[in-house]
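Troubleshooting entry. Yesterday's outputs looked truncated, so today I'm pasting the complete records for two proteins to confirm everything comes through intact. If either block looks cut off, that's the bug. Protein one:
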Amino acid sequence: MASKEELKTAIHAAFDGAVADGTSYTKVYAAEIKQKNFIVFRTTTVSNFAVGFRPGQTDLVIVPLEEKSGTVTAGTPLTITDANRAAVKKRDLQGRFVIKTTEGQSFKLSILPSVPKLLAASYQLPVDQKAEYEAFTALRDSLTTA
């Protein structure tokens, strides 16, 4: 498995390649974990994202990510602006940041300052992003008080 720093660099490179002027964004890794309980078994689906933002602005760009053997590829970016942002919650019952768009898309993102390698077993990517996390919490707080 790639190191935490190599994965962080790969996540940033994938975002920069998918988003015009991507290098001007602060980027944070996020995961969305969905569980479905059935009578006999439970399924868990983990989706990985890079969330880009510019300090002092309220626009977000969410890029889905796929990781395989340390190689990170980006999906189609979604830009969320004041015009298409429907709702924002600082935390839901599981402590996730929740954002919804006017088009009906919803993201329940877990964003941690450091994702330990132990959580990598559940398909979250292990990264250290303390500075980026602090910048994101400032943006999150401004979105939830607006």
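Protein two, checking that the full record survives here as well:
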Amino acid sequence: METHPDIVDMRHRHEMAEHATSTPRGQAVETLALLTGLYLAASPWIAGFNNLSTLTVTNLLTGLAYALLMSGGFGRAYERTHGMAWAACALGLWTIVAPWVIAGDVSTTRTIVNNVITGALALLLALAASAAARAESSSGRRDMSASYGAGRS
């Protein structure tokens, strides 16, 4: 059972995802993304626009969701990590456009500057996480195909 191809493949994918998040680059992206999400959640109080209740709630929920997605706590397999990184990209884009699409008059200079900078940073970090997961998957597939080829000779 230990040598069954499905178990070997599952173990290999888990090891790839663990390796991608254990590199210094992966840890830096994860830490910066967590801090970005926490800042976004607290930004209405830090930047001083907490009286704009719809944007306050939106930033709070989006920031917490982003921090949870990017902290890596919900998935270590490549497919989950890669999918969560793309969901985090969507949250970064949402953060950028939120001051203009949220109901009410919330598009002040303070909210726009805060959300555009924080959203752009969130988007870049999510793209970096997605690229790291993809790079790790590509190198892992090459290693796995080489080991399967060697075992079949």
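Both blocks look complete. Sanity check on protein two: Confidence is low (pLDDT under 50) at residues 141-153.
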